[in-house]
Amino acid sequence: MNQALDAYHPTIDTMIDGWIAEKMESKSHSQRTEHAYRTTMQSFRAFLHQAEGLDVDADPREIIRLAREWASSRAGQAKRAGPVSPATYNQRLAILSSFYSYLNEQARLQSSTYPNPIEAIEKPKVQAYAEAAPLDAGEVFDRLLAIDRSTLVGKRDYALLAIGLQTGRRANELVSLHMEHVKIAGQKITLHFDHCKGGKKKRDTLDKDTAAVFLDYLHAAYGADLYQVERTAPVWKSFSRQNKGQGISIHTLIDICEKHLGSSKTHALRHTFSVEMLEAGAPITELQDRLGHENVATTSLYAKRVRSAENPYSTKLSARFGIGKSK
Predict the structure, then answer these.
(1) Lowest mean pLDDT among 2-16, 54-68, 150-164, 262-276
(2) 29 or 218: whose pLDDT is higher?
(3) What are phi and psi of 28, to 5 degrees?
(4) What is the pLDDT of residue 25?
(5) For the chain, which residues make up each domain, given as ranges?
(6) Which residues neighbour 202 within 8 Å (Cβ) at sequence distance 6 or greater?
(7) Calpha distance 177→234 (Å, rounded)
(8) pLDDT class for 257, splitting at 50, 70, 90?
(9) The pLDDT value given to residue 136
(10) pTM of the full predicted structure?
(11) In angstroms, rounded to a whole number, what is the distance separating the alpha carbons of residues 277 and 286?
């Protein structure tokens, strides 16, 4: 281990624990974020060890070289092939950079130095919401109708997609729901999302139709008396052999979206919600509140991106060019 670091941190594990503790305290991060930090560091350390027998305290030049390779590669068990997206690449490096900045600060407190090697890595530019692509409402209608709701899995998938399309919640917010987050008053159901991005808490009261299909699933999954269900039980139960009874993962949600909607992008639910809200006449400020954006400028950019394929002047252009007209 680097001697400057060894002077005040006995192990790398202790360094990582200290870094995460500091991040959690200063940023009020959720347990999901803590998990993301830990799993990212585990992945990077495993890569360093397998590639060169190194760890995170290796020569910064080696860290730079290997961090580039690691950040651009998919996990061995990944279902999809090809390079990762620029956003994923940058996010991985951002977590590493945060860790090395922590080490740099700790070293300075001991009148020593330890550079942040990640700062030397060039990051590709990522266009905000560049991949924001809403689904066609008519196609969604047909695809939802095709789900076999006579099965427990079908009831779950239908209710989950319906709630995603009606609330616009992010994937991790949807899959993290537990029974304690479901408030039922007669036929009225309100979902409490306690771990939204930025530490926010949001609530969504479902319309009667969505509430009905949601209740249909819950009764099928947990029985007639929902008040007897353990409050920590997951809303969206897994029915796979390996994880039966546990909550589904984001990967399962990806599979559900791909199977029933033809898109592996879970954010397509959020994009479609946004477009349909605007089509229904919702003001941009209402959409801002529903999406949980800090300011309306972010929502305006988001709305512009998800509708970027639409050209309001296309009809006039067709007329000018005589498209569709016969001789």
Answers:
(1) 2-16
(2) 218
(3) 55, 45
(4) 75
(5) 3-120, 137-306
(6) 169, 173, 192, 193, 196, 292
(7) 6
(8) very high
(9) 86
(10) 0.66
(11) 9
Q: Which two tokens stand for residue 320?
A: 């000018």
Which residues, 6+ apart, have CB-to-CB distance to 96 below 8 Å?
A: 40, 41, 44, 67, 71, 118
Give the length of the chain. Answer: 327
pLDDT mean over 94-120: 86
Report the DSSP beta bridge partners of residue 234.
Answer: 178
**Cβ contacts of 98 within 8 Å, gap of 6 or more:** 19, 23, 37
Residue 256 main-chain phi, psi, to 5 deg: -65, -45
For residue 78 the two structure tokens come to 């990944």
Per-residue 3-state assignment (H helix, E strand, C coil) for 125-190: CCCCCCCCCCCCHHHHHHHHHCCCCCCHHHHHHHHHHHHHHHHCCCHHHHHCCEHHHEEEECCEEE
Please give the average per-residue pLDDT across 280-288, as a whole number.
86
Quick check: 236 pLDDT over 90?
Answer: yes
Token pair for 258: 């791909």
Per-residue pLDDT, averaged over 23-33, amounts to 67
Does domain 137-306 correspond to CATH entry 3.90.550.10?
Answer: no
State the Cα–Cα distance between residues 164 and 298, nearest whole angstrom: 21
Q: Residue holding tokens 């036929």?
A: 187
Helix (H, G, I), strand (E, B) or coil at 247: strand
| 3-120 has CATH 1.10.3470 classification | no
pLDDT of residue 151: 96
